[in-house]
Amino acid sequence: MATVQVSEAEKVYILHGIRDDLRVDGRGCEDYRHMEIETDVVSNTDGSAKVTLGHTAVLVGIKAEIGKPRPMVPNEGYLEFFVDCSANATPEFEGRGGEELGTELSNTLYRVFNNKHSLDLRSLCISPGEHCWVLYVDVLLLQCDGNLYDAMSVAIKAALFNTKIPRVNISSDDEGGKEIELSDDPFDCMRLDVENVPCIVTLCKVGHRHVVDATLQEKACSVASLLISVTHKGAVTCARKVGGGSLDPESVFEMTEAGKRVGKALHAPLMALLRQEESLGMKRHKVGFLG
Amino acid sequence: MPTDTKRVRGPEVSQSPVLFGCRPAAVLPSHGPRADGRQRDQADVRPVFVRCGLVSQANGSAYMEAGSTKLMCCVYGPRETERKDETDMKCGRLTTDMRLAPFSCPVRGSWIQGTQDKDLSLMLYESLQPAVCLQKYPRSQIEVSVMVLENSGSVLAHAVTCASLALADAGIEMYDLVLGCSLCQDAGSYVVDPTYAEETSCGSGGGLTVAFLPSLNQISGLQSDGEMSEETLTAGVRTCIEGCYKLYPVIQQALIQALRRAAPPPSES
Amino acid sequence: MAAGFKTAEPLEYHRSFLKENCRPDGRELSEFRTTTLNIGSITTADGSALVKMGNTTIICGIKAELANPTVDAPGKGYIVPNVDLPPLCSSRFRPGPPGEQAQAASQFIADVIESSEVIETEDLCIDRGKLCWVLYCDIMCLDYDGNILDAAVVALLAALRNTQLPEVTVNKETSTPEVNFEKRHRLHIHKHPVGTSFCVFDDSVLIVDPTAEEESLSTAQLTVVTDEDDRLCSLHKPGGSSMSGEKLQECINRATARQREIQKLIEKVTHSVTTAQ
């Protein structure tokens, strides 16, 4: 991941600040940076969202395609994740450089969504054992300024909220064969219930405390971080230790507790914001990428 | 589809007979004693068999069996970094490669390393790296490779334990051993060190794997999936740590035994 | 002193032993390392065997799957042998796709299966033209100390002997296969091919069952595969120095003797496994 060099003096400065609950950019330990969300930014996807968090920018596009259900779960659709680390984000991603990080991020996403309640996969089923919707979730990292996981998960939630899947009708002909018909009306579409979609909160252990939404400088001072994905009810769907150091059990417990608190608080304003944007409808002022 | 010219190829599609079993697989009970007689809701780990130094070619190696989970780990190095652009003057490099043998699971796996193997390798790396004194091996790399011969559950946890044992056997300086333990959570109760069947049948709950440095009391690796409340997660971590402590004497014994064999104590005469 | 000599002049070191008709590990020129066999230890495989020849360790796991037979051979199944030399077994192998040696070994095993008729692929047919078994024979080296071909052949043979396939019936109405895992039957092994590998030192001295070091110092290598009827199934001599007909005959004679030993070993171990059950 993108890294910065931090001198010893800077490290001490950051560490002492965090000890006193005051970070370099004026935030407290459990505060996020300024976050901007815009949905429906890419017209040729079924759902999309762009999130900027500080200088971190993530674009998520969702494409719905008809596929065959997995043999083990014939009455469910499924999600496919792909994370592309654009060389625009940081020169380190050039060539095959971003590939490893991309796999790591997408594997984590599979884990985050690997439970029954995050998304109602049954609603994605068209006809059991034969057809289902496959949601291809493509994440594009446009700029890296720390805390990719959190930005990515918020963007995915927003994009899923924005996703419109066309309605289909199944008509069977005389010989028992089935035919799938897409609805002609472009506004006749199915929406996903994203209430339970979790958000990832990454907590970095810096000194004896932990901070939410670490910048690259803060990350350079931290030994290890814990990422936990939390639903609006406070259930944890994934937890992972990342980074080179180890943590003592007590701080793991503290961090999970804090992560749950922060994550839970993140959902309500996010959903309110998404609904508000939706209600604006056509009147919405589009900002786009250069805004 | 690109064809694999480097292997003997079979038919293009073949299906596992498991998919066509004439009676559905038995559903494991979600309460009462477990299929192998162990207790629920307790740090009841399977007895393990461990042995160091079996592979003649490696600098260090370990073989481990827990129930019918069988895996072995070899450590090569420290040796010169292969790729010159990755040479670090201050710090050594640790690489991990974990693979499930094609015949290790009920359904045959592929030879090509899938995302699951890559994910496991990464988890293994993150769990081991904090324990290895990499600053003592500048400009060199230490390769850890794990092969799972039979997957009967909790492979990542046992791979961590086995790999740290192999690292110790190779004489790599470490702060502490790393022990792994995992559990599966399902509807109000949990099973520690789950078997493959228990892992796949736990529906609504989730899995948790913890890597632990016992004498420093530090968690070097943690991963969970599925849905859990924060309290269950915390309780699960505690239980896994307890499970690691149960494993500790066995692993220590294996190391001492390997050391004795390598350098027999001087006779009294 | 000896250790220094060994590292500095490995060839001279070996020569000094060979002059006295023995080898650095104390073996005679035509002596095999101790061979041990463990059958059926991998329960997730349909058949498995672990072979140790000295330090060299090879495991073979067999997984059976269902497939459609080819149009050219509707009454035949498939056997798909693959040899893997993972980075785990020696520092000479890198992760990634199989290297040259692994590819050559896979091809050699495939040739042995083909030419020795160890299994008739007709036996793997379930429903002519519709359904057949595929036997994926995955052979993996866990410790590479020379002579993997011999060990691989033994592992394969023992694993095939150990393989039990579940009974399959094809449902007439839905024409889908139904598998009964409770009823299993063994494969019919027609022949018992066993390989014997030799190394030629300095174009003249012939040694059997070479270690990894001996392999790297030798001028030629040769593998002879024979079965219980003393038929020559396969002869594998990839390049190297030339060899006289007499020497070759000597090798074949040694190979037939080795075949007897190994077949006896397999019988013994298989027997002990079945009586233990």
TrEMBL record, chain A:
InterPro entries: ExoRNase_PH_dom1, ExoRNase_PH_dom2, ExoRNase_PH_dom2_sf, Exosome_comp_Rrp42_subfam, PNPase/RNase_PH_dom_sf, Ribosomal_Su5_D2-typ_SF. Its main location: cytoplasm. Belongs to the RNase PH family. This is Exosome component 7. The lineage of its organism: Eukaryota, Metazoa, Chordata, Craniata, Vertebrata. Keywords: Acetylation, Cytoplasm, Exosome, Nucleus, RNA-binding, rRNA processing. The keyword Cell inner membrane does not apply. Component of the RNA exosome core complex (Exo-9), composed of EXOSC1, EXOSC2, EXOSC3, EXOSC4, EXOSC5, EXOSC6, EXOSC7, EXOSC8 and EXOSC9; within the complex interacts with EXOSC2 and EXOSC4. The catalytically inactive RNA exosome core complex (Exo-9) associates with the catalytic subunit EXOSC10/RRP6. Exo-9 may associate with DIS3 to form the nucleolar exosome complex, or DIS3L to form the cytoplasmic exosome complex. Exo-9 is formed by a hexameric base ring consisting of the heterodimers EXOSC4-EXOSC9, EXOSC5-EXOSC8 and EXOSC6-EXOSC7, and a cap ring consisting of EXOSC1, EXOSC2 and EXOSC3.
TrEMBL record, chain B:
It comes from the Eukaryota. One of its GO terms (biological process) is rRNA processing. Coiled coil: none annotated. It is found in: Cytoplasm; Nucleus, Nucleolus. Gene3D superfamilies: GHMP Kinase, N-terminal domain (3.30.230.70). Residues 45-173, 176-234 form the Exoribonuclease phosphorolytic domain. Keywords: Cytoplasm, Exosome, Nucleus, RNA-binding, rRNA processing. GO terms for molecular function: RNA binding. It holds the Pfam family RNase_PH_C. One of its GO terms (cellular component) is cytoplasmic exosome (RNase complex). The keyword rRNA-binding does not apply. Belongs to the RNase PH family. Non-catalytic component of the RNA exosome complex which has 3'->5' exoribonuclease activity and participates in a multitude of cellular RNA processing and degradation events. Component of the RNA exosome complex. This is Exosome complex component MTR3.
Automatic annotation (TrEMBL), chain C:
Its main location: cytoplasm. GO terms for molecular function: mRNA 3'-UTR AU-rich region binding. It holds the Pfam family RNase_PH. The keyword Kinase does not apply. Residues 31-166, 193-257 form the Exoribonuclease phosphorolytic domain. GO terms for cellular component: cytoplasmic exosome (RNase complex); nuclear exosome (RNase complex); nucleolus. It is found in: Cytoplasm; Nucleus, Nucleolus. Coiled coil: none annotated. Keywords: Acetylation, Cytoplasm, Exosome, Nucleus, RNA-binding, rRNA processing. InterPro entries: ExoRNase_PH_dom1, ExoRNase_PH_dom2, ExoRNase_PH_dom2_sf, Exosome_comp_Rrp42_subfam, PNPase/RNase_PH_dom_sf, Ribosomal_Su5_D2-typ_SF, Rrp43. CDD domains: RNase_PH_RRP43. GO terms for biological process: exonucleolytic trimming to generate mature 3'-end of 5.8S rRNA from tricistronic rRNA transcript (SSU-rRNA, 5.8S rRNA, LSU-rRNA); nuclear mRNA surveillance; nuclear polyadenylation-dependent rRNA catabolic process; rRNA catabolic process; TRAMP-dependent tRNA surveillance pathway; U1 snRNA 3'-end processing; U4 snRNA 3'-end processing; U5 snRNA 3'-end processing. It comes from the Eukaryota. Belongs to the RNase PH family. This is Exosome complex component RRP43. The lineage of its organism: Eukaryota, Metazoa, Chordata, Craniata, Vertebrata.
